[in-house]
Amino acid sequence: MAAVAADIYNTSTGILSIARVTVGDILYSDVKATIGEVISVGTYSDDSHDTYDASTNRLTIPIVNIVAETCYNLLQRCCCCHPSKCN
Fold it and tell me: What angle do CA 67, 78, 32 make, to 5 degrees?
């Protein structure tokens, strides 16, 4: 089983802190993103990092902590998920 680092969503700022995300063939670390609509919430996944699909603008998140709640295998549409464009 791969080590999984949960993302953290700050409801006060609307910022998702992502430990690691794959965009195409590149793995980025310590990424910040704003959130669009949540498309689905699934069950536990042992994927070790998020995956962003630029063609659909969708970010798949294995684990995210939202306030005191933990969601598994979340799929969402991103507003900003480019490391050089997010603060």
Answer: 60
Residue 47 CB contacts under 8 Å (≥ 6 apart), including other chains = 2, 4, 60, 62
Dihedral sign of CA atoms 34, 58, 75, 1 in order: negative
Residue 42, domain extent? 7-80
Q: List, for residues 49-71, the tens digit of each pLDDT value.
A: 899 998 998 999 888 887 655 66
Q: Residue 86 domain-assigned? A: no
Mapped onto helix, strand or coil, the DSSP state of residue 66 is strand
Residues 6+ positions from 55 with CB-CB distance below 8 Å:
none
